[in-house]
Design brief:
This protein is α+β, with helices and mostly antiparallel strands. 24% of the residues lie in helices and 32% in strands.
Length: 311
């Protein structure tokens, strides 16, 4: 993940500044603490920057697929996580199986029951997702999650995360929000229709709340990230926070220092004849790895923090 420590400090300032109560994360990395051989996640370190989010759950989906010929081993698994200001009273790791398709990555959903008030007893059912990038498997992921929700007979449901849906294929979201879905073959479980929090409060004259940039250009192009709500909620306001420009300005010195250290590490690897892919992440379709750094023009990733204010 690009400059994770610096990026999360900036993300934490957005989360705290806008008083976001519950946050869902995708592609959370897990590693083994060599000192005591305990599995730890990035969110455990992230909590240091969010002291008000006292409750956390993080679950791995499966092994991290390292870049081809990587000459390092840093993370062992990745998955989903949820941070909350309110008590997480229980959670369920939902394994999403897939048949066919080209995506071999294990997929899960993470269901957390969060108690927002004690009297009256008010519980939110928050489900974090990161669906497959393969269209057929996206449909399967959505169907399996709906069947889980049907089996649990839940109320006050929020499904949020990366649905990997794009303008040319909206199936994995449509199965939650519509009775008529042509792009995904599926059986409608006995679950009320969800609605899109961002679009419910969106005015025609406003720009679409796009959240994904195929870095470093052409800018925001799609909306794979969604917050879907069951009918028991009413959206008061929906906002999209975060942009690469302020992040670069606030973290520029730290990023330069990180890149310098990466170059020195890569130079040492070359000196001891350690060959291979030296960047700590995949540089994506528009970048390449040079001396431990992903390069191409202004190759610093934009990111967004999404929240919906609901009652």
């Amino acid at each position: 993940m690009f400059n994770w420590e610096e990026r999360f400090q900036y993300m934490a300032s957005l989360i705290e500044g806008h008083e976001v109560d519950i946050v869902a994360f995708q592609e959370v990395r897990f590693s083994i603490d060599e000192a005591n051989e305990v599995k730890i996640s990035q969110l455990q370190k992230a909590k240091q920057h969010l002291p008000n989010h006292k409750w956390m759950v993080a679950q791995p989906a499966g092994p991290v697929e390292l870049p081809k010929n990587a000459n390092w081993k840093r993370w062992t698994e990745e998955g989903l996580g949820i941070l909350s200001k309110f008590p997480i009273i229980s959670f369920t790791k939902i394994k999403l199986t897939s048949q066919g398709g080209r995506d071999s990555n294990p997929r899960i959903a993470l269901h957390a029951q969060i108690q927002v008030t004690q009297s009256p007893h008010h519980v939110l059912n928050v489900v974090a997702v990161h669906f497959s990038y393969d269209k057929q498997q996206q449909c399967q992921n959505a169907q399996q999650l709906l069947e889980f929700l049907e089996s649990q007979d839940l109320q006050n449901i929020i499904v949020l995360g990366d649905f990997n849906t794009y303008p040319d294929f909206s199936g994995p979201v449509d199965v939650f929000t519509s009775n008529v879905v042509k792009s995904c073959p599926f059986r409608r479980p006995h679950v009320p229709l969800f609605y899109d929090a961002a679009m419910d409060s969106h005015r025609v004259e406003d720009p679409l709340p796009l959240s994904f940039s195929n870095m470093p250009s052409p800018g925001y192009i799609s909306r794979p990230d969604r917050i879907l709500l069951s009918p028991t909620f009413k959206v008061i306001r929906s906002d999209l926070y975060g942009h690469g420009g302020p992040y670069i300005n606030s973290c520029y010195s730290a990023i330069i220092m990180k890149r310098t250290m990466s170059m020195l590490r890569s130079a040492f690897d070359s000196f001891i004849r350690r060959n291979g892919y030296s960047c700590l992440h995949d540089c994506g379709p528009h970048g390449s790895c040079r001396c431990g750094i992903c390069v191409r023009g202004d190759c610093i990733a934009d990111f967004s923090v999404k929240s919906a204010v609901i009652t």
